[in-house]
Structures are given as C-alpha cells and as structure tokens.
Amino acid sequence: MQDVAQRANVSIATVSFTVNNTKPVSAATRAKVEAAMRELGYQRNVVGRALASKRTRIIALLFPALQHTFSGTVVQFFTSAAATARELGYNLVLWPISNEAGQTTELTSSGLVDGVVLMEVELDDPRVQELLESGTPFSLIGRTRDPAEMTYVDINFEDTLVEAVRHLTSLGHRRITLLDDAIGSRSLAAFGPVGRSRASYEAEMARQGLEPSSFTCDATPAAGKAAAAELLGDFPDTTAVIIQNELAATGFVSGLRSAGRRIPDDISVLSVGSSVEMAAMADPELTVMSSPGTELGRMGVEALIDQLEGRASKLRQELVMCRMEGGKSTAPPSPVPGHGNHGDA
C-alpha cells in the first residue's frame, strides 16, 4: 500500500479508503490510485485483512435453491442485494443451500462470512433458530410466524391481497379464485408468502360476503397450463383469477386461450408478486401487482450491515406493498359468458 501511495502521490490512508470503500474518495484520486495499483500489480489480500480485523466483509444470501426455482423476480432480489453490499464495502455471495438448519450451521461455523441475509422464510423456519443460537448477525427478507424480536423486511402480502381482491370487485367480479404456488404444500411447509396471502384473500372475500375458492400448482408453465383446465373443471363460474405463481402464469393464460376463453373478456387475470417484464411475456400482457424485489434486496442488506457496523439502534421491521401496474388482462365481467366487454381496465 505504501508503494501505491508513493506512485499515486497520495497518503496510505487514501489508498486504504479507495481499496476498501470505507470513506468517499474523489473520482480523480480514485483513478490515480487504481492506475498505480495496475502499474505495480497490487491486489489487496482479503485473507490477510480478515486475519487482522477478525472480519471477512463477506455476507451470504441464503436461498433454498433445491426447493424453489429461480425466477426473473427472484433475480431482482439478488442483483439489488449484491449492488448494495458492494456500495457499503462488503462482498455478497449467493449460498444456494436447502432450508435445513444443518447446512446453515456449516456456513456460520466456518468463519467465512460476517453475517447472513435469509430468503424464502418459512413460518417456522429451522434456519432462523440456528442463526439465533449461533449468534450470527442476520436479517430476513420474509417473516417467521412470530418475528417480533427479529430484523426483517418483507412484502406486505396481507394488504397486497386485499388490494387485489378489491381491484377485481370494483370491476364487478364476485367469483374470484386464487391460484398460488405449490411450494407452500410441498418441501417448504408453511411457506410465509403462500400462507399469509391465502389467509388474507379468504378474509377479504369473507368481509365482502363472497365465497373464496383457491387451488395451487407447481411453478412451471406446464403446470400453469394444466391449472387452467383444472380451474374450468372445478370452478366453472369463476370470472376472475388472482395468480400468485409467477412461473406458471404464462402457461395458465395459454391454457385458458386453448380452451377458448378470452382474457379479459371471459376471465380476468391479475398477477400478484411478479414483474412487469414477466407480465409482458403473456398474451395479453397481464395486469400485475409487481414485487418490490429491488427495494427489498437493498433493504435486507442495509439492515444486516447496520448491525455489523453498530448502527442498528433498534430492530428494523418494514413491510412493502406490491405495486399495481398497467396491463390488459382485467376488465368488468361479461354479462353473458362468452360475450365479453372487449375493454381493458
């Protein structure tokens, strides 16, 4: 570092600030330091730094990839989290392990990471208990059944589903069916988003004096197409569907169209927790309540690093709504089945 400082004609402290992103450095000074580093072949020794400081400045984003398929919306969480960590002087690694506590123990006991951001949180999540017992700093993107003493950021699934139901009832729909992700009934038992969303949907339907109906399918286009046939067979009077299953949505729309149903003329479809990009892949483009993935990825990393840097004076607990985006898949119900309004909402 001394050689770099001499070559760039700056102090050793300025080299340290530049290398570690610990304090602001002007663009011109950064360019001089980085040029000197290239000329001298200097690279920081991360291992040496970790030994000296007892910290690696590496944080892990735990995602149970064995149980939950990556989607475009999930990638928004990853990229936002990684960018935020970098801005704050940390490196983020994606740790795609299962939701078993034992694999979390292997990571936290290794000394490889300073802290953990946990995604795809179950209502009763064994990984959370392991993190609490190990003393490892962590934040949740999601919530357990009782998160009162934990740092978390999450989608406000409860109010999002209320808004979804009210959007459709405001158009005149009374027979509204929810299609969600089978992950909630498979490997990730009591998966928070599925459980909270279905409970909120059922409660809002009851508040409006309507009968709820819901079913589930795997997170694939093929499963979505099969779900369309299931809907028409089991819930034939449905006029609107809330689909909270991003990867099945395009297949579901295709299945309805193959069965001769026009969207939104015969059946309205509202996608919840997806993205505008994914909604645009359907024909017609889906009306969507988009997931705040970019925002939550940033907030989850900030919440963890605030703990690591001693800036967390109180627990950070924040909920963010999904946002209603334009689309062409919701409209008032047809007065006569098969004779649509030919309008968008």
Structure description:
43% of the residues lie in helices and 17% in strands. The radius of gyration is 24 Å and the shape is elongated. The longest helix is centred in the first third of the chain and has 16 residues, at 72-87. By secondary structure, the chain is α/β, with parallel strands linked by helices. It has 13 helices and twelve strands. The strands form two sheets. A six-stranded parallel β-sheet has the order 2-1-3-4-5-11, with helices on both faces. The chain has helices spanning 2-8, 12-20, 27-40, 46-53, 72-87, 101-108, 126-134, 157-170, 192-207, 221-234, 246-258, 276-279, 293-308; strands at 58-62, 91-95, 115-119, 138-141, 152-155, 176-181, 213-217, 240-244, 268-274, 287-290, 317-320, 323-325. Residues 185-189 and 337-345 have low confidence and may be disordered. 43% of the residues are buried.
Offer a concise description of the structure.
The protein is an alpha/beta fold and 345 residues long. It has 13 helices and twelve strands.
Q: State the secondary-structure class.
A: alpha/beta
Structural shape: elongated
Overall pLDDT level: 87
- The number of E-state strands comes to 12
Q: Number of DSSP helices?
A: 13
Q: What is the percent of helical residues?
A: 40-55%
Q: What's the story with the biggest beta sheet?
A: 6 strands, parallel
Rg, please? 24 Å
Write the layout of secondary structure elements.
Elements: H1 2-8, H2 12-20, H3 27-40, H4 46-53, E1 58-62, H5 72-87, E2 91-95, H6 101-108, E3 115-119, H7 126-134, E4 138-141, E5 152-155, H8 157-170, E6 176-181, H9 192-207, E7 213-217, H10 221-234, E8 240-244, H11 246-258, E9 268-274, H12 276-279, E10 287-290, H13 293-308, E11 317-320, E12 323-325
Helix pairs in contact: 1-3, 5-13, 6-7, 8-9, 10-11
